């Protein structure tokens, strides 16, 4: 698993190196961009600014007209970035190191999680292959939160499947410091806990087993504490308990709209010629990813995987009720039931893996190239 992981990291580094030479920002450029410049794009800059300057430097905040809405980003990753920067002086390199180590942890946890669903030796390898060559895999290798979130979330889910509720909720609490998606994971673990407790309460000796099963319910409160603490911190500085949500609304049009309004607005942005071709292509990818997510929830419900369906459905609801879809393709990285499901299907259809790789690999290369050259991706 780690060999495959490191080889795909090497591929992305080769692409980043080529991008800074072949696709400079101007037509008359005579020198390539700095070595790590391709990796410091978009949200990576927000995390750098938070880690370096804090959330409200020199009294700045959302009351300023040119505010960058940085409080929309949860503090787990910037805090870790600041800690690693003590050892690694370059901010971008520090972020890449976090993603490199966290991605390795996530890959190993994904492999073990896959084998808990599909009891085959090769199931973990297939899952990791599909995951690492997925269209938005570049975001696992840059200074974004996906790798770190999965490094907490996947072991948490694996612990929950083993009914190790204390470990599951503690790791989920760490995940909620990184992304709001940690709350979706907490909801899925709560559903799994309830189903497990109800199942334990049947048959002989059910009263004793029921008391034992419900004893761990107190751990379910743990994942909600970090977001509550962050909301308290923001309230102390802004007077707004939901400042992070309002920052998302101001900066990324994440105010509530009905699902059909969000679909219509995204469709218009993708096909009505309002935006440039690059943005239109990404809006088309948003629509495709949303359809994949809806199909995934339907499959999970059909196979009675209710906790997994809750996790993906909450993610879709959060992403699918904004003005238009943003970052849905990138969110597919967090839907591990998708990659495990693809790995489960592939042995029964020998052509499937070849077809997947032929479609996904060029898409992954295009998204990576778009990101490394400063274009909007994911």
UniProtKB/TrEMBL annotation:
Its main location: endoplasmic reticulum. It is found in: Endoplasmic reticulum membrane. One of its GO terms (cellular component) is membrane. GO terms for biological process: GPI anchor biosynthetic process. GO terms for molecular function: alpha-1,6-mannosyltransferase activity; GPI mannosyltransferase activity. The keyword Transmembrane helix applies. It comes from the Bacteria. Keywords: Endoplasmic reticulum, Glycosyltransferase, GPI-anchor biosynthesis, Membrane, Transferase, Transmembrane, Transmembrane helix. It holds the Pfam family Mannosyl_trans2. The chain crosses the membrane at residues 91-110, 130-159, 165-195, 216-234, 281-301, 308-325, 354-372. Pathway: Glycolipid biosynthesis; glycosylphosphatidylinositol-anchor biosynthesis. The keyword Flavoprotein does not apply. It is a multi-pass membrane protein. This is Glycosyltransferase RgtA/B/C/D-like domain-containing protein.
């Amino acid at each position: 698993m780690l060999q495959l992981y490191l080889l795909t990291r090497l591929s992305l580094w080769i692409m980043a190196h080529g991008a800074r030479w072949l696709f400079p920002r101007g037509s008359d450029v005579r020198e390539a961009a700095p070595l790590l410049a391709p990796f410091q794009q978009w949200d990576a800059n927000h995390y750098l600014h938070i880690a370096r300057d804090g959330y409200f430097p020199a009294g700045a905040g959302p009351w300023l007209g040119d505010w960058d809405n940085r409080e929309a980003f949860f503090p787990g990753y910037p805090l870790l970035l600041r800690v690693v920067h003590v050892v690694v002086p370059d901010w971008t390199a520090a972020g890449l190191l976090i993603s490199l180590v966290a991605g390795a942890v996530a890959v190993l946890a994904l492999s073990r999680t896959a084998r808990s669903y599909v009891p085959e030796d090769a199931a973990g390898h297939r899952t990791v292959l599909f995951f690492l060559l997925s269209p938005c895999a570049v975001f696992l290798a840059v200074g974004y939160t996906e790798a770190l979130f999965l490094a907490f979330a996947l072991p948490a889910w694996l612990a929950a499947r083993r009914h190790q509720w204390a470990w599951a909720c503690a790791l989920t609490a760490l995940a909620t410091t990184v992304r709001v998606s940690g709350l979706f994971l907490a909801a899925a673990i709560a559903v799994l806990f309830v189903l497990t407790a109800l199942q334990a309460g049947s048959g002989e000796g059910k009263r004793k087993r029921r008391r034992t099963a419900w004893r761990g319910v107190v751990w379910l409160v743990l994942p909600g504490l970090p977001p509550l603490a962050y909301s308290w911190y923001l309230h102390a500085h802004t007077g707004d308990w939901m400042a992070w949500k309002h920052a998302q609304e101001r900066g990324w049009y994440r105010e509530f709209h009905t699902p059909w309004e969000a679909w219509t607005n995204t469709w218009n942005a993708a096909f009505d010629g309002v935006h440039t071709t690059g943005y239109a292509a990404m809006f088309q990818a948003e629509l495709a990813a949303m359809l994949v997510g809806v199909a995934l929830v339907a499959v999970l419900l059909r196979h009675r995987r209710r906790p997994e369906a809750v996790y993906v459905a909450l993610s879709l609801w959060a992403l699918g009720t904004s003005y238009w879809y943003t970052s849905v393709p990138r969110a597919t990285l967090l839907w591990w039931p998708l990659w495990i499901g693809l790995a489960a299907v592939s042995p029964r259809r020998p052509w499937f893996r070849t077809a997947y790789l032929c479609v996904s690999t060029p898409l992954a290369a295009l998204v990576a190239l778009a990101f490394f050259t400063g274009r909007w991706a994911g």
